[in-house]
Write a structure and sequence with these properties.
547 residues; alpha+beta; 10-stranded mixed beta sheet; 18 helices; 48% helix; elongated; disordered N terminus
Amino acid sequence: MTRTRARAVRIGVPVLAATTQGAVLVAVGLLITHPPAGWWDPGERGLVAWLAAHRTPALTGASHWLSALAFTPAIVTVTALAAVALLVGRRWRGAALLSGAVALQAALFVTAAHLVDRARPDVVRLDGALPTSSFPSGHVGAATALYGGLGLLLLRPGHGWRRVVCALLWAVPVLVAASRLYRGMHHPTDVVAGALNGAAALWVVSRTLTARQRQRQRHRTGPVAPVRGSVALVYNPVGVDDALLERLHAVVTAHGHHPPRLLPGSAEDSGRAAAERAVADGARLVAACGGDGTVTACADALAGTDAALAVVPCGTGNLLARNLGLPADPADALAAALGGHARRIDLMRAEGDGLPARAAATMAGMGLDAAVMASTHRGLKRRLGWPAYLLGAIRHLSDRQFALTVRVDGGPPVRRHVRMAVVGNVGTLQGGVRLLPGAVPDDGLLDLVLVQPQGLRGWGAALVGLVTGTHRPGPAAPLEHFRGHRIELTADRARPRECDGDPVGDGRVLALSVRPDALLVRLPGTARDTPLEGAGTARTQEERETA
């Protein structure tokens, strides 16, 4: 199928579906208002009259507030606020689903109401004479599209409280329908048609967005040969729910693979044992679905093997995914990895006093950064993402400098007073901050930055350097850099330490050694010589052999 034809199909199918929905809605309304001979009478007048005769002050007040939930100002306000919140959370499909469904049902409601022009029930109406037709109910249609859509977005299998909130949201259209009947504003068939209009609008918009996403994935991967061998998804069960697993499962099968094995990681080893089991069972690609801790555990298990790692960012920092140029959305990242190419990168080995040797894939540090990691609550990170670290950073900005001795590749010791020291296999933080501008994950070297600003002016210079990636050299600079194969940090006393964003306990010593070409990873694109993040360049094969 050509791209022009595919675009025509993507546009034509939802237009046809919406047109069909509108035609059916109008046809049903005309059958109700102009019934043929022998048409079945549902007895709607009797139900509305009975409700009008049994009104009470309490029910009247409740129906007023329920109807207010679906009045146009409330629908517009809630839709706008929800869409903005979803966009801030980078869930543009959710924002498009809500906005599109509410807009589509409103357009079809106006069209049907104009063509059908059904009179409202012949009872005392509590909301006065409205200019629109009784068929279909615009209140019920808007409530179904908005609150029903919010329920769909919130629903996550395995989360009890989400199911409760989802049920409450889905109950809103039903209660709005009951209030509209009670207040004498609609016939029963009007509210049923309104509910079907809102539900159909949700379905049409949802299917359209799903089709566009599948097309984007196919276009992004292009005619690239799929990964040979089986695929395993090792995931963090705390951060990855059933709905996301289903999306990732669909991406794998859409790329021509057999259904992947789903292996939950344990809290004790962050998924390392699961990744080792997958490789032992013949998996040729392991997708690490979680934060940097899960990714590092899987990377350590795959190091030195021919099995490839696909990084699926589902955590707070997702530093390795960012530095490898992967999309932020987990499904998009997996699709890019499956449709990309394989390349070897370095890993780090971290050790120190009271710290057993462990792997690190991105950064490890001592001082301010480790204190921030340790003091940022896990629940806050889940709600806010990486900006939660900014709150922790504010609390620790007043921490004093400490004496630190640095030794690179066994050379002479260098003594400094610093706020923090970070050793990195990659160089870019969240928000594009280039902490280590020269760090490249496949150059066989580690990069060290000492953050040692003096006063407000020093902090200002440090911030400018981080944003622009231009760091002034020299021992008096607020950001001082070193590079080598092994970097040892020794503090004056026990200080907070972290590896790949996980606190590893206080200690005086943190030593990092490079593990060249230890890990085979899947990267987006097809060119094997694509430069990775950083100012350096990838090594040639000769350089790899002599490193």
